[in-house]
Amino acid sequence: MTMALSPSSPESPAGASRGKALAAAAIRLGALATFAAIMAYFALTARGFATPFNIVNVIEQSAILGILAFGMSVVIIGGGSEVQTGGIDLSLAANAGLCAAVFATATNAGLPAPMAIAATLGTGMLVGAVNGFAVVGLGILPLLATLASMNIVAGIELTLTENTVLSTSSPLLSVLSSGRFLGISALAWVLIAASVIVGLVIHRTPVGLRLYAVGGHPEAARAAGLNVGLHVWGTYVFAGLCAGLAAILIVSRLSASTPGTGELLLSILAAALLGTVFSRRFVPTVGGTVLSVIFIGFLANGFQLLHLSSYWVSGVQGALILLVVAVTSYARPQEH
């Protein structure tokens, strides 16, 4: 004789649904509690950590990472967050380095600021378009396609710069590096504006809803008439746009294009992936990405104020990536 399951039973659909909701809530609350605990520790042990000046300084320093993390997050949203086959752009940091070299070269060649900006953004979007074609048109796994692209782009940057620092200056760079409005630097305003714009597009427009549909349920999205390939391709172009914008900020902050921008990749991945734990469905959100970017910025700042080696920051970021991937890989099968 078959026994009916009680609605409150863990094996019933209602019980399983409540269990999933509780697990997701526990992960989100745990992430927020960890964030708060680390901030409290630094505030108590690192002198000057909690001062308004330091907080604003961290936000300013986080602008470049934030712009790049938005690009990575959108790629993950549109391509799916499956670790092995989902959306990812490993060339994003290298693309920013190439765009920075293009911007510095164009500025030193005497091109007007609008033309230099157009060349920079165009370079980033071209790399993104090639990545999108490799993934959508050629059917190459994003992980492999963008890994190959990363090395190609890094080689082009080294060829253009001859592995040297390209110093440059312009009125635009001066405004970005030292301009202030309402006591807040131009770099911080760029991050704030980008957060608002990307947040509105991703969470409040049909474009964002379609990207979540394409990334989460591509077959259903295709059956509903959405052009899945075009949407995925567009995410890589957007990531390239973010690389170009971040490149201009990099040059403004350093007054030069410098080799080594590719080292930002670990921080970009950590910010985009860590942001997934703030979502009920373990997918990137703009708010979660912003929190992750600020957290990584404060983490590096706290280590610096405690006179700890910056190498520890990379180690912690790597550990966070492993932890987030493990948690989300374990939790996602419960949602199907």
Automatic annotation (TrEMBL):
It holds the Pfam family BPD_transp_2. The chain crosses the membrane at residues 21-43, 63-80, 92-111, 117-136, 181-202, 232-254, 260-278, 285-305, 311-331. It is found in: Cell membrane. Keywords: Cell inner membrane, Cell membrane, Membrane, Transmembrane, Transmembrane helix, Transport. Its main location: membrane. It is a multi-pass membrane protein. The keyword Cell membrane applies. This is Monosaccharide ABC transporter membrane protein (CUT2 family).
